[in-house]
Here is the input.
Amino acid sequence: MIQLSIVSYTLLAALAALVVALAIDVFRRRRLQTKQALLIGQDELPEAPGPRSWPLIGSMHLLGGYEVPYAAFTDLAKRYGPVINLHLGNQKCLVVNGLNNIKEVLIAKGAHFDGRPNFARFHQLFCGDKENSLAFCDWSELQKTRREMLRAHTFPQSFSARFSHLDSFVAEEMHDLTARLDATAGASTAIKPELIHACANIFSAYFCSKKFDRHDAAFNHTLDIFDSIFYEVNQGCAADFLPWLLPFHSKQMAQMKQWSHEIRQFMETHIINDRLTRRRQGLVSQEESGDYIEALLEHVESQQKEKLLTLDSAMFALEDIVGGHSAVANLLVKALGFVASRPEVQERVKAEADLVTGNGARPLTLQDRPVMPYTDAVILEAIRMISSPIVPHVANQDSSIAGYKIEKDTLIFLNNHELNTSDKLWDEPSKFKPERFLSTGRLIKPEHFLPFGVGRRSCMGYKMVQFLSFSILGTLLQKYRLEPEQDYKVPVGDLALPKDTFKFKFIAH
Ligand code: HEM
Here is the structure.
C-alpha cells in the first residue's frame, strides 16, 4: 500500500514536472512571438503626417510670423492632426498636441523620450559639453544622481529646517527690498534689477549660505550674465536647426563661452574656494553643513567607488541651480505686469494677506500659503498666460506615439501652449482670471495644466518658483498699490524679459 502510494506520488511528481516544463516552454514561445509581433508591428506603424520638406530648410518657413512660435504647432495640428512630422533643417522633429499624446511621451514612454536636443549653443554655454547642464543633458546615471541630490534642496519639506531657512532668507530680502521701494516714494521704478538681486540673494543664501550687498559690483555683473544666459536660452535660434548658419553666429557663440567662464570665476572666487579651504580645516558652520554646496562637495570628496560627479561637474550643477533665480525674477516682473493694470486683483491679494497677518502686524511667511489660495492662483494664472514651452525632448530609441512610428533621435516638441490657451479647456482663455484656479475657496490645478512638465525630466525648481513668487508677490501687493508707468503688453510665449523692461510705481498703502 505504502509502496503503491510512493510509486503514484513519484509518477504524479514527474507528471507535474512535465506540465510545468511544457508551460514554461509555451510561455517562452509566446513571449518570443509577442516580441517579434511587436517588432514587426513597430515597423509596420505609419509615419505621422506632416508638411512637405524643402531642401536645406525643411519646413522652417512654416514657423515664422507667429507672436508665440508654438502657436504655429496649433495651426499645423488643424491641418495634419495632433501628431505631426516636421523637418527643421535636416533635423527630424515631431510635434505632439493633446494631453493624452503629451502624457504618452512624458509618462507612459518617458524612458524612450528622455533625451535633449544637441544644439551647438547648449554646448557653448557648458564649456563645450551640454552634458554638464542639468536641463539640456541627455538622460544618464549622472543626471539621475544630480536630480536625486537636488531633491532635498529644491523640494524642502514643509516645517523642515531647510524650509524655515528658506522662509527666513525670503523675509530678510523682502525687508531690504521694501525698504528700497519705500525710498522711491511712488516714483517710477525699474523693478527687474531689484527682483533679480532679491531672488539671487535668496538662492545664494539658501544653496550656498552666502549673501551679497545690493551694490556689490562683481555680484551684480554676474547676475547680468545669468540673466543674459536665461534670455538667450529662451530665444529660438535658426542655427540650432541650420548648422550651416553657425559661422554667422560666431560672435554670439564666443560671447556665450565668455559668459560661462566669467560665472565660473565668480563662483570660485566668491563662493567655492573659501568653502573648500574651510572644509579641509573643519570650519564649516552648522548652517552651511546642510546646504547644497556641502551635499555636492561631500559627494565629490567621498571615497565611494560609484561617485559620478567631479568637482567640475558639481560646479556646473551649482551654477545651473543658482542661475534659477533669473527664472523666478522674470516670472515675477511679468506677474506684476499683469496685475499692475488690474487693481481688483491687487486688492484681493492684499485682503488675503491682511487677513492672515492681522493687517500687516507681522510679515507674510511661507506657512501662510495654504490659507492664501488666491495669491497662488494669481501666480498660476501668470504662468498659464506666459505659457513658457516645455524643453524639447529627444527619442533615445525607436518607439511610437499615438500609433505613429518614431525614429531614434527625433526631436519632440510638446505643444503645451495649446494646452494653456485652448477655449475647449479654459473659459475665456485670453483673459487674466486667477479665479479659474479656485474651487470652493481651494486651489485647483487642472490635469491639462503642465507648466513644469511631468515625468523623469520634469522641472526641479517648481517649488522654489511657488515659494518665492508667493512670498514676494504677496508681500509687495500687501504693502503697495502698483501702477503701470507706461502702456505695455506683457510678452508671452517664454519667461524671459530683456534687461531694460517696463517700470511701475509702487505706492505705499
Ligand atoms: C516659472 C519658472 C519655471 C518654469 C515655468 C519651469 C519649467 C520647466 C519645464 C517645462 C521644464 C522641462 C520639463 C520637461 O522637459 O518635461 C523644466 C526643467 C527644469 N527646471 Fe524648471 N521651470 C521654472 C523655474 C525653474 C527654477 C527656478 C529652477 C531651479 C531652481 C528650475 C530647474 C529646472 C531643472 C534643473 C530642469 C531640468 C530637469 C531635467 O531635465 O532633468 N526651473 N523647467
